[in-house]
């Protein structure tokens, strides 16, 4: 019984933290500000229940498939992640720990693909329900009563938020999100893009698609890495995986620095920019530090990527990536590793698994969001 207590306590803590986070997203204010009461806190369950439903389904997809393949695993460990200082989703995710050494390519494939496919279904259903049961504009006016002074046309107000000093949050839309929105969403009820984050089912489904895409990145030991490794084999995967990592980091850091930053720095800032730039170059190196065994090659790769970013910004000044993905680049490149463990049993997958594998890669494409939250 004791071994289950930690899992249960972490789950209950994550229920509380995700409910807090959900209430903060709905009402647009921090719980620590003292402006949120218990009734408002309870509204956060509209976010925490579907989002934890997605997370739990994903992890238990891995868990039950591991049991079927006779691989020993732990129950999911949930990681509560509410800080109260800034907006969060209340969790850093969940994971199961594999207790056996997996030697079969089929085992890696089956365990790896079960989680994303199961979670994907929950995310899609959540998003569809969010669009079908979307409330009218009165929902936005309850959260923002100050919008009433604009003659009920808050959308016109938000089309120029900078004019009145509003801070706004937008959710990026993947290909699948756009399809579901146009298919199930009522155009008369769809809110202004700046207000979408207040809708808990929409936010939970959006995050479900986003985390499905991140898990399906074809890099290292992510679920997508296990799937692609089984599909194309070790030799080809050990080319594709580092290339995918380099592209992810190169895109993420695009536009952070410009060649003109150094020329425009004045006064005390003339030393800040070079130091920040050097730190960034070292960070990129850390992301690539396990691609080659020789440190010099990793440095050359890092410097080449940074130089390429500066060159693109020089000739395309408006170009930019999404810096939020840099954390995943560091986690993959420095912590989890970019390569896949070798397998002893490399029996071919069969037509059914191959079809499912490429379907998972297609799901990655239609769920990926270049600019998730801005």
Give an overview in words.
The chain has helices at residues 2-27, 38-43, 45-68, 105-132, 137-143, 154-158, 175-184, 200-215, 223-232, 234-252, 259-264, 269-288, 295-315, 326-336, 351-367; strands spanning 77-80, 91-95. The protein folds into 2 domains: 2-231 and 346-367, no CATH class; 233-336, no CATH class. Helix 9 packs antiparallel against helix 10 (234-252). Strands 1-2 form a two-stranded antiparallel ribbon. The protein is mainly alpha-helical. The model has no long low-confidence stretch (mean pLDDT 90).
Strand and helix layout:
Layout (H helix, E strand, L loop, with lengths): L1 H26 L10 H6 L1 H24 L8 E4 L10 E5 L9 H28 L4 H7 L10 H5 L16 H10 L15 H16 L7 H10 L1 H19 L6 H6 L4 H20 L6 H21 L10 H11 L14 H17 L7
Helix pairs in contact: 1-3, 3-4, 3-8, 4-7, 4-8, 4-9, 4-15, 8-15, 9-10, 9-15, 10-14, 12-13, 12-14
Q: Termini separation (Å)?
A: 44 Å
> How many E-type strands?
2
What's the Cα radius of gyration?
A: 23 Å
Order of helices and strands: HHHEEHHHHHHHHHHHH
Strand arrangement within the widest β-sheet reads 1-2
What characteristic shape results from the CA principal axes?
Answer: globular
Mean pLDDT: 90
- Which runs of at least 5 residues are low in confidence (pLDDT < 50)? none
Strand content: under 5%
Number of helices: 15
Largest sheet: 2 strands, antiparallel
Structural class: mainly alpha
User: In total, how many domains does the architecture comprise?
Assistant: 2
Helix percent reads 55-70%
């Amino acid at each position: 019984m004791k071994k289950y207590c930690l899992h249960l306590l972490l789950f209950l803590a994550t229920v509380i933290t995700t409910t807090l986070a959900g209430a903060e997203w709905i009402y647009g204010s921090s719980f620590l500000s003292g402006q949120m009461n218990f009734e408002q806190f309870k509204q956060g369950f509209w976010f925490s229940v579907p989002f934890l439903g997605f997370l739990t389904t994903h992890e238990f997809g891995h868990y039950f498939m591991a049991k079927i393949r006779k691989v020993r695993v732990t129950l999911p460990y949930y990681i509560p992640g509410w800080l109260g200082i800034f907006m969060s989703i209340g969790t850093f995710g969940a994971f199961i720990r594999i207790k056996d050494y997996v030697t079969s390519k089929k085992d890696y494939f089956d365990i790896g693909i079960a989680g994303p496919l199961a979670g994907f279904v929950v995310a899609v259903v959540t998003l569809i329900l969010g669009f079908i049961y979307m409330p009218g504009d009165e929902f936005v006016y309850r959260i923002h009563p100050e919008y009433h002074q604009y003659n009920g046309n808050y959308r016109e107000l938000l089309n120029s938020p900078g004019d009145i000093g509003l801070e706004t949050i937008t959710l990026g839309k993947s290909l699948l999100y756009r399809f579901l929105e146009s298919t199930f969403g009522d155009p008369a009820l769809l809110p202004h893009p700046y207000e979408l984050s207040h809708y808990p089912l929409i936010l939970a489904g959006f995050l479900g698609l986003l985390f499905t895409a991140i898990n399906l990145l074809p890099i290292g030991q992510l679920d997508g890495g296990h799937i692609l490794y089984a599909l194309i084999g070790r030799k080809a995967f050990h080319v594709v995986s580092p290339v995918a990592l380099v592209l992810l980091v190169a895109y993420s850091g695009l536009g952070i620095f410009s060649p003109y930053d150094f020329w425009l720095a004045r006064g005390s800032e003339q030393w800040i920019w070079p130091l920040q730039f050097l730190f960034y170059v070292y960070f990129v190196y850390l992301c690539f530090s396990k691609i080659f065994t020789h440190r010099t090659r990793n440095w050359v790769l890092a410097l080449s990527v940074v130089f390429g970013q500066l060159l693109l910004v020089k000739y395309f000044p408006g170009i930019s990536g999404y810096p939020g993905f840099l954390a995943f680049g560091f986690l993959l490149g420095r912590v989890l590793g970019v390569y896949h463990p070798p397998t002893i049993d490399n029996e071919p997958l069969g037509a059914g698994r191959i079809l499912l594998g490429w379907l998972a890669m297609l799901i990655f494409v239609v769920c990926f969001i270049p600019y998730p939250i801005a």
